[in-house]
Amino acid sequence: MKVGVLGTGVVGHSLASKLVSLGHEVMMGSRTKDNEKGAEWVSSMGERAHQGDFADTTAFGELLINCTSGLHSLAVLEAAGASSLKGKILLDVSNPLDFSNGFPPSLSVCNTTSLAEQIQEAYPETKVVKTFNTLSHEVMIDPGRVPGEHDLFISGNDVEAKAEVCKLLREGFGWQSIIDLGDITTARGTEAYLLLWTRLWGVLGTSDFNIKIVKREKEST
Fold this sequence. Notes:
Layout: E1 2-6, H1 10-21, E2 25-30, H2 36-45, E3 49-53, H3 54-60, E4 63-66, H4 73-80, H5 82-85, E5 89-92, E6 97-98, E7 106-107, H6 115-122, E8 127-131, H7 137-141, E9 152-156, H8 159-171, E10 178-182, H9 187-192, H10 194-204
Parallel strand pairs: 1-2, 1-4, 2-3, 4-5, 5-8, 9-10
Antiparallel strand pairs: 6-7, 8-9
């Protein structure tokens, strides 16, 4: 499969590298075709790795992954072009974190909407699937870094798109416990969780953690 990864930061680098290792052809996209980080990544990953600008990358990918800063994601997708986004799955990993006042960050979007919803509204013919945004980039690609069972969340309006993403997450990335929260509005919850995640990161001194949902089973009558 051809995958277009938007963003050259640590999240984009980790996901793109993992996907190449799984045998996929991957293009890493940035503002310019000759981005230095992208060039270094391509030279280290071999013939299945490519780079381009945002428009090149969305045109290239059958599956698209948004790993850009949440504050700039909508502008990046606008630069990428609506025609190349049409009909494709866009796996949105971004969070609307605002560090303008330092750490801990605030959310630039919250409560009555989410970044994922704004993306879906702007591109109604794109199948936006929100996942991975509650984890560090290391745990995204290697859930075994955290011992025991723990959960990954997914949100989106298109049931078939979510099923396709879940298959990749299970078979390629090793995620076994995936909780489907429902439609794209449920991304409000996972994006807001980052306010807690960043605090936990500071207290625990590591990003190698995740959560497990434990519920009481109904008693049989």
